[in-house]
Amino acid sequence: MTAPELDLRGFRILPGLLDRAAQEAMVKALREVVQAAPVFSPQTPYGKPMTVRMTSAGRYGWVADRSGYRYAERHPEGMAWPPIPDHVLALWRDLVSVERDPDCCLINYYGEGARMGMHQDRDEADFSWPVLSVSLGDEGLLRIGNRTRGGRSESIWLRSGDVVVMGGDARLTYHGVDRIKFASSTLLPQGGRINLTLRVVD
Ligand SMILES: O=C(O)CCC(=O)C(=O)O
Ligand SMILES: [Fe+2]
């Protein structure tokens, strides 16, 4: 049974939207993406490696290195990004729009001890499109702040199968992942957490 929908500071949270079979199908499709476009450890512009490893599917992928954060049409190793899996697109069409598909599916992998600092998602051209997030595997503690950096925040544990729509007035709200509960889920044999975010880039 799916838990009721929540609104946390304008983030629409759909707990347990994906059942176990849907989560497994998504992981299977993502394995194919990762075979074509391996996960890498981005460097922040300040030269520090990020603890989250990532790759992307779609026309654009998100990359970070000494010259900054941006969307790029190629993986750092030179290949084009593989297409966004159909299962993932179907979720976007159900929850966001059939008018336009996302052109990036960013795949974040959080191993033991990985985290993501507070940030806004603001490398896209049009903030009227939401960012749709899907959590798979271990639980992750999402922190939701404000439209400017700092201030009070609220946190929520995201579990495997939870979906979040970050849109409307909350599209530029600061957010981050403080920690994961390593090995809290049996979905991924190696443990860890996958988060997908679907984005309209240009
Ligand atoms: O892992 C998450 O739940 C959030 C990821 C995120 O904020 C991002 O990739 O921009
Ligand atoms: Fe984000």
UniProtKB/TrEMBL annotation:
GO terms for molecular function: dioxygenase activity. Keywords: Dioxygenase, Iron, Metal-binding, Oxidoreductase. Residues 101-202 form the Fe2OG dioxygenase domain. Pfam families: 2OG-FeII_Oxy_2. Its cofactor is Fe(2+). SUPFAM superfamilies: Clavaminate synthase-like. InterPro entries: Alkb, AlkB-like, AlkB-like_sf, Oxoglu/Fe-dep_dioxygenase_dom. It comes from the Bacteria. The keyword Acyltransferase does not apply. This is Alpha-ketoglutarate-dependent dioxygenase AlkB. It comes from Roseovarius pelagicus.
